[in-house]
Amino acid sequence: MAMRLSVSDEPEGSWEKEYTILTVGNAGIGKTAVLLAMTGAEEPLRTEATIGLDRKTRIEECHGERIALQLWDTAGQERFHTNIGSVYQKADAVLFMFDIHNRSSFERLSDWVDEVERNNLKKSLVRFLVSTKNDLEPQVTESEAKARAAELGIPYLKTSARTGAGIDECCSQLAQRLHGAVARLLDEASSVTITEPD
Ligand SMILES: Nc1nc2c(ncn2[C@@H]2O[C@H](COP(=O)(O)OP(=O)(O)O)[C@@H](O)[C@H]2O)c(=O)[nH]1
Ligand SMILES: [Mg+2]
Fold first, then answer.
1. From the CA of 34, how far away is ligand 2's center (Å)?
2. Residue 30 sits in a domain of what CATH number?
3. Which of these, 28, 70, 168, 198, has the minimum number of CB atoms within 10 Å of its CB?
4. How far apart are CA 122 and CA 133, in angstroms?
5. What is the pLDDT of residues 94-129, one digit of tens each?
């Protein structure tokens, strides 16, 4: 098995910088399983229904620095939405997720895009489109998924918590986007205060 950096034995604060990542998408599409796989769980498919919010940490090396990806797991149910407003606001990145084996989860993506737009106005918000369960028969074609990502102007990544495919790739892409030189420059630019004319 490929070696993964996981956090269970990481002391708090053993990283230079941390970022808040939010996962969104319909219930049952495998969000929790992906986060478990990202953080080195032995059996990522043994998930329990997520209630409210849960956070997991993954450490990545980027430009010689250790950075923490704080991965927030959300429940897909409408009634929990009120609780996650603050995570939406502080999110540095969002993973829009759908199940490649569940067409309706792909068709409902715009609900999640709207939801994030209503709650996070950061110009520098990093966004990825991520399909899950790529070990199963696809109900959404590769070109449909890529077209949707192009429409949104964001990268598309394929994962499977079952096989581990795309899991490390997703984390390193996240780290690079969040912590890369370009991201840092954008961050600085967006923190410049603009005085409104009166
Ligand atoms: N075949 C397959 N099943 C998965 C995968 N990821 C999750 N599942 C199963 O899909 C169901 C829902 O997963 P879960 O992570 O709880 O979904 P969530 O509600 O989006 O957090 C569970 O029964 C998982 O075992 C995967 O990569 N492949
Ligand atoms: Mg869950």
1. 9
2. 3.40.50.300
3. 198
4. 30
5. 999 999 999 999 999 999 999 899 888 788 899 999
